[in-house]
Amino acid sequence: MPKILTNQSDNAIQQVIATKLARAVFAGFEAMFAQFLNITLGAQSRFEQQKYHDVQSAMRERLQVYEREVKNVSNAVRVIAYSELNCPQTWQLAKNIYGDMLQNHENKPIAHTFFNSTFGAIWDDKKIRTVHLFVLKAKYRSEPRSYENLVSRISFKDGFNHAVKTLITRQVFRVSFSNLDADLQALQTTLMAGAKQQCKQVYELINLNNGFIEYANSLFFRNKACYLIGRCIAKNGDNMPFAIAILNTSKGLKLDAVMMGADQLSLLFGFARTYFMVDTDQPARYVDYLSVLMPHKKRFELFNAIGFIKHAKTEFYRYKVDTTKNSPANFKYIAAPGTPGMVMLVFTIEGLDYVYKVIKDKFSAPKTATKAQVKDKYSFVKQADRVGRLVDTHEFRYLAFDLSRFSDELLNQMKAQIGSSMVISGKALILKHVYVERKMMPLNLYINSCNNKALQQVMDDYGKAIKDLAGANIFPGDMLMKNFGVTRWGRVVFYDYDEICPLTDCHFRDVPNAQNALEELSSNTYFDIAENDIFPSQFKVFFSANDAAFNNFNNLHSNLFLAEFWQGCQQQIRAGYLPDVYPYKQSWRFK
C-alpha cells in the first residue's frame, strides 16, 4: 500500500527526500543526455572514415543509453527514497521540485519525459495518475522557440550559383570532394529547376539575385550518407525546403542528390528509416526548425527521426489524446482493415494515421511462439537498420483509452482475444502492453484495387523490399502480402514481425528430389526438415490467390525463389558487405 504522510515530522522528511529524488532524476537525465550526445558527436568521423559497421553499432548503442540510465536512476532512487518510495505525496512534491529545477533548462520537455520514465519504472503496474507526470497540461507542452542560433544564411546578392557554391564550401570535412565543380553544376541546375516547378516566388527572386539560402548548421548523418538541410527563401517569406545528400565514395566526397519540397523531405524523414545523428545540444529547437520545413510532419515524428524516441512517445500520447478529443463522438475504435492476424489484435480509429497492436493471449495455429518471443522480435526490429522497409513502432505500457470510443464488436473481440492485457477502470480502457505503428494499406488489399501499371510497380517494389531487407541481414519470415503495407508514395514496407530474424540464422535449401513416385505423392514429408530450414521454391504459395500479381513478381524477381540467391546474400553479409540503400528515388540522383 502507498504510504500516507500525516504529521509535521513526516512532512519535514518528505521535503528532504523529495528534493533528493528530484536531484537524482535530474542528474540521471544530464548523464543520459551527455552519453547520447557523445555517441552522436562521432557521426562525422565515422562517415569520413567510411566505418559503416561502426555507424550501425553506434546507433544500437545510442538506443540503449536511455533505458540504461533510467534503470541506474531507478536503482538510486530506491535507495534514496527507502520507506517513502511508494508515497504519492513525496513523488508529487519531487515532481514540483524537479519542474522548478528545469524552469529555464534548454531541454525541459525531454527532461520531463525522463522523469516520467523513472517514475513509471519505479511504480510499474501500480495505478499511475497523470498528476505525477509531465504530460497533458498546457504548461508541459513546449511552444516553438527561436532557432536563429541553429541556422546560417547566404544572400543571393552575388548570384544564386555563388550562394550554392558558398553553401557547400562552408561545410568542413576531413575528406575532399572528388569533382566539386561538376557536382555544383548539377546541384545548381536541379535547385533552379525545382524552384521553377515548386515555388514561383523563389524562382523569380533567384533570377533577380534577391532572397537567400538558409541552412542548418549541423549535418544530419545516417547510414552511409550525410545530409545538408535548409531552404531557399524569397523576401516575401515563400520558401522551398531542400536536403542535399553527400556520399563518401572511394574517390572522395560526392553530392549525390537533392530533395526539394516538404513532400520529398518527408521521404528522407520517413517512418521506416533508422534515426539520424545530429550534432546538437538543442534538439527541441531543431524539431521546431524541421517543423517549419515539413509542416505536415507531427512533432513526435521529428523527435523520433533525430533519435529522441522516448520523448517522441510523450508527444505521440498528447497527439493521440488531442485527436480523440477533437474528433466527432461517433468516431469509434474498430478492427483495422486487412486480414486478422494470428498473433496480434490490431485496431484503429478514424482520423488517426496509426494502428494499435496487442499480442493475443492465445495464438492461432500454426503459430507456436510465446508472448516473450514476439516482444523479442519487435525489440530486434528497433535495433536493426530498417533500410526504409520496416515500419518503426512505439512500445507503450499501461496506455489509457476512452472506453466510450470502442465499438461493442471490437470490445467483445478484445475481451476474448487480449483479456489478460487489458483493464477497464471507470471510463478508461487501459492496455498493459501495446505497440503503435503507422497505418497503411495492406498489400493484399492494394493489389485488388489497382490498375495493371500500378500492380507491376508495386510487385516490383515488393521484391525490392524483400531484397533490401535481405541485404540488411533481415529475413521477414512470413512474407505473405497481408504482412506488407503500401505507403502514400507507393513504397512497400513490412510490418508483421513475429517471425522476423537475422538472415544469417536461416538455412536456405532446395527441395530434394523424390526417390520415386510414391514419395512424391505422399502426404507426409519425405525428407528431414530442421527448425531453421527454409525452401525458397515454396514462396510461390504467397501468390496463390492472384495469378496477375505472381506473373508480375516472377518476371521481375524470380531469383527470390532460388536457394542460391539467399545463400549468396548470406555470403555477402558474412564478408562484411553493406549494400547501398538510398532514401530517395534513383531518378533524383545526379548523373
Automatic annotation (TrEMBL):
Catalytic activity: L-seryl-[isocitrate dehydrogenase] + ATP = O-phospho-L-seryl-[isocitrate dehydrogenase] + ADP + H(+)
Residues of the Isocitrate dehydrogenase kinase/phosphatase (AceK) kinase domain: 332-586
Organism: Pseudoalteromonas carrageenovora IAM 12662
Active site: 392
Protein name listed in UniProt: Isocitrate dehydrogenase kinase/phosphatase
Keywords, comma-separated and alphabetical: ATP-binding, Cytoplasm, Glyoxylate bypass, Hydrolase, Kinase, Nucleotide-binding, Protein phosphatase, Serine/threonine-protein kinase, Transferase, Tricarboxylic acid cycle
GO terms (BP aspect): glucose metabolic process; glyoxylate cycle; tricarboxylic acid cycle
Signal peptide: none
Domain Isocitrate dehydrogenase kinase/phosphatase (AceK) regulatory: 22-327
Amino-acid positions noted as binding ATP in the UniProt annotation, renumbered to this chain: 336-342, 357
Function: Bifunctional enzyme which can phosphorylate or dephosphorylate isocitrate dehydrogenase (IDH) on a specific serine residue. This is a regulatory mechanism which enables bacteria to bypass the Krebs cycle via the glyoxylate shunt in response to the source of carbon. When bacteria are grown on glucose, IDH is fully active and unphosphorylated, but when grown on acetate or ethanol, the activity of IDH declines drastically concomitant with its phosphorylation.
Location(s), subcellular: Cytoplasm
